[in-house]
TrEMBL record:
GO terms for cellular component: cytosol. Residues 4-292 form the Inosine/uridine-preferring nucleoside hydrolase domain. The lineage of its organism: Bacteria, Pseudomonadati, Pseudomonadota, Gammaproteobacteria, Enterobacterales. Coiled coil: none annotated. GO terms for molecular function: purine nucleosidase activity; uridine nucleosidase activity. Signal peptide: none annotated. It comes from Mangrovibacter phragmitis. One of its GO terms (biological process) is purine nucleoside catabolic process. This is Ribonucleoside hydrolase RihC.
């Protein structure tokens, strides 16, 4: 199994990614950390705890950054609803978050692990930037960062920037320059990671998880139930267990932090025009059928 820390801002596609991370037989989910993103961090933390309660799992949860490193907070409630997971009435969680903030809990988890840990990030990168700033030595026990974020093409939050990077460009820039191996699953692949209406209808009747996810899907605005929904965050989990479904290109990626119109854009130097060493492995293509097959197989393992 692959030891994993999952940094998330649930979030409807985050909820599906969490299900896959918890129920995949190939992943050992050691810690969940939350960050402000789709909605505020109190709510993303509550959402993560509610999902664990729903599945009766007791993986530790640490609450992370309340706001980006240097910019005001913005959210995506127009995509995920006011609660971040609109559409299902969850029972209140019994588990509480850890006392330590996310970046300290991450450091502790990395220090204690006998094997290098993969950091999977499916929200803004604020917590990871704080971890690297406060505990630079932790790098040695991170095997790689697998992130959902960025784009080699257009954005989805501003014309040029993807949401997770646009919310905290300074944090993303620090992570990209960290020297840690980074696999970037950006919009180039995640816009194509669409669940079909046919499968979503079947999922609804499959299990209590299927029913719950389907209720969330009917409130998720990244596509539509009639034409299919984009499962951005699920791509990072898919790469982890089935890297052969993706084609990666190693190149230099910079994050624009100065632009007044382009802040948060990931500048992906596919033709090596800057002549800088590659720092990111960028997913440029995905086997969509293979992805869908894996999603069905993995979500069928959830109760
Ligand atoms: C990303 O933005 C969020 O709304 C989703 O959860 C995903 O992490 C897609 O751009
Ligand atoms: Ca997310």
């Amino acid at each position: 199994t692959i030891p994993v820390i999952l940094d998330t801002d649930p979030g409807i596609d985050d909820a599906v990614a969490l299900a896959a991370a918890i129920f995949s037989p190939h992943i050992d989910l050691k810690l969940i950390t939350t960050v402000a993103g789709n909605v505020g961090v109190t709510q993303t933390t509550r959402n993560a705890l509610q999902l664990l309660e729903f599945w009766n799992e007791d993986i530790p949860v640490a609450q992370g950054a309340r706001r980006p490193l240097c910019r005001p907070q913005a959210d995506a409630a127009h995509i995920h609803g006011e609660s971040g997971m609109d559409g299902y009435a969850f029972a209140p969680p019994r588990q509480s978050p850890l006392i330590r903030p996310a970046f300290m809990a991450m450091a502790e988890c990395l220090q204690e692990s006998s094997r290098p840990v993969t950091l999977v990030t499916i929200g803004p990168l604020t917590n990871v930037a704080l971890l690297l700033a406060h505990y630079p030595d932790c790098k040695t026990n991170i095997s790689r960062i697998v992130m959902m974020g960025g784009s080699a093409g257009r954005g989805n939050f501003t014309p040029n920037a993807e949401f997770n990077i646009a919310i905290d460009p300074e944090a993303a820039a620090q992570v990209m320059e960290s020297g840690i191996e980074i696999v970037m699953c950006g919009l180039d692949v995640t816009n194509r990671a669409v669940l079909t209406p046919d499968y979503m209808a079947r999922l609804k009747t499959q299990s209590k998880t299927g029913k719950m996810l389907h209720s969330l899907f009917s409130h998720y605005r990244s596509g539509s139930l009639a034409t299919g929904l984009r499962m951005h965050d699920l791509c990072a989990i898919a790469w982890l267990v089935h890297p052969e479904l993706f084609q990666l290109v190693d190149c230099y990626v910079g994050v624009e932090t100065q632009g007044t119109l382009t802040a948060g854009a990931t500048v992906v130097d596919l033709e090596n025009r800057f002549n800088r060493p590659a720092n990111v492995r960028v997913a440029m293509d995905i086997d969509v059928d293979g992805f869908r097959h894996w999603v069905e197989e993995t979500l069928a393992l959830a109760p």
